[in-house]
Amino acid sequence: MNIGVPLETYLGETRVAVTPETAKKLKAQGHTVKVQSGAGVAASAPDEAYAAVGAEITDRAGALAAELVLKVRSPDADELALMKPGAVLVGMLNPFDKPGLQALASAGLTAFALEAAPRTTRAQSMDVLSSQANIGGYKAVMMAADRYQRLFPMLMTAAGTIKAARVVILGVGVAGLQAIATAKRLGAVIEASDVRPSVKEQVESLGAKFIEVPYETPEEKEAAEGVGGYARPMPPSWLERQKVEVAKRVAQADIVISTALIPGRAAPVLITEEMVKSMKPGSVIVDMAAGRGPDGVGGNCPLTETGQTVKKHGVTIIGETNLPALVAADSSSLYARNVLDFLKLVVTKEGAFAIPADDDIVAACLMAQGGELKKN
Ligand code: NAD
């Protein structure tokens, strides 16, 4: 099969869907791999590294005209115009972007959005949300440490003692857990909040403290269980009590890293302006939900500015929207392996494309086929 790997055109996107490592494996499986010149450069994979494993270096049209196109982001209109009807597209295509998916369907593509894979054991090796959120959680802590004008670890020196930084993590999914682990390695004292009670044990196992907010009504308990491992919106009564507990911790915090998301909905507001005002000068917030707040404004903090780092009420607020792209080599490496694993489900040993009749992962990821949207 002809496999195309275009250079990503989305602003700030540095990742690439196929690395020299996975290009080599695709070649070994008998495929022709056509990589657009420069596609891997921002991820530390120059053309020569692809050529060395037998990939062909081509231009944009050459990569996009392939039977199977592997991408990070959904193609824009110009890219779509270069793709062939009937081609297969695999990428992070945003399963909630109906107009975007409709454009893929109208272009006659068979499109798979990897973010839609179920969070099951079998799907773990192709779980792009996890592989990328993991890196995002790490980078969030690195960015906070860089902006923070004090140290993370406690330091006892001849000139006196420096206190350890207090870090609050809001939302403890994959990114939040990695943020805890990373901040812990740097010596911080960490507290974390999540709506899902199952997270408590994971937080404690990493040496952090879980912010307890009891569930008082059957409605609260039911909502807290979530669905498919994901959070559901919590009743206002619980959110009010959470706010009180979080506000106390935020006022004492040096660093807040917020990652709270509910799939397909606006990110919950967890850090109000009042809370920001209560923080010490020089504190840092990294809002990983930037750009996903109500009406696309803000994130978990309404003061967050999408894609910007701003200072408000003496607090630095980082609203970077694509943290994995700032660690392009490793995030590409994990993403490319996720893609390779997914392909095992839809490409036969003989190298032909085939959609298995009863595969839950493939069915969940399939967004468009035969000119039609596969999801409502
Ligand atoms: P996510 O990015 O959707 O959300 C981040 C976190 O925000 C979640 O932990 C969520 O509970 C939390 N959150 C939502 N509203 C909140 C609020 N008001 N206050 C505090 N926290 C709030 O999450 P994710 O990283 O994609 O992980 C989702 C789930 O999938 C987790 O349960 C994770 O353990 C699970 N998971 C399972 C597998 C697997 O079994 N293969 C792999 C990866 C993740």
TrEMBL record:
Domain Alanine dehydrogenase/pyridine nucleotide transhydrogenase NAD(H)-binding: 145-319
Name of the protein in question: proton-translocating NAD(P)(+) transhydrogenase
Lineage: Bacteria, Pseudomonadati, Pseudomonadota, Betaproteobacteria, Burkholderiales
PANTHER family: NAD(P) TRANSHYDROGENASE, PROTON-TRANSLOCATING NAD(P)(+) TRANSHYDROGENASE
NCBIfam families: PRK09424.1
E.C. number(s) listed in UniProt: 7.1.1.1
SMART domains: AlaDh_PNT_C (SM01002), AlaDh_PNT_N (SM01003)
Matches recorded under CDD domains: Rubrum_tdh
Catalyzed chemical reaction(s): NAD(+) + NADPH + H(+)(in) = NADH + NADP(+) + H(+)(out)
A Pfam family reported for this protein in Swiss-Prot or TrEMBL: AlaDh_PNT_N
Chain ranges of the Alanine dehydrogenase/pyridine nucleotide transhydrogenase N-terminal domain: 4-136
Entry keywords, A to Z: NAD, NADP, Nucleotide-binding, Translocase
Organism: Rubrivivax gelatinosus (Rhodocyclus gelatinosus)
Superkingdom of source: Bacteria
InterPro entries: AlaDH/PNT_N, AlaDH/PNT_NAD(H)-bd, NAD(P)-bd_dom_sf
Function: The transhydrogenation between NADH and NADP is coupled to respiration and ATP hydrolysis and functions as a proton pump across the membrane.
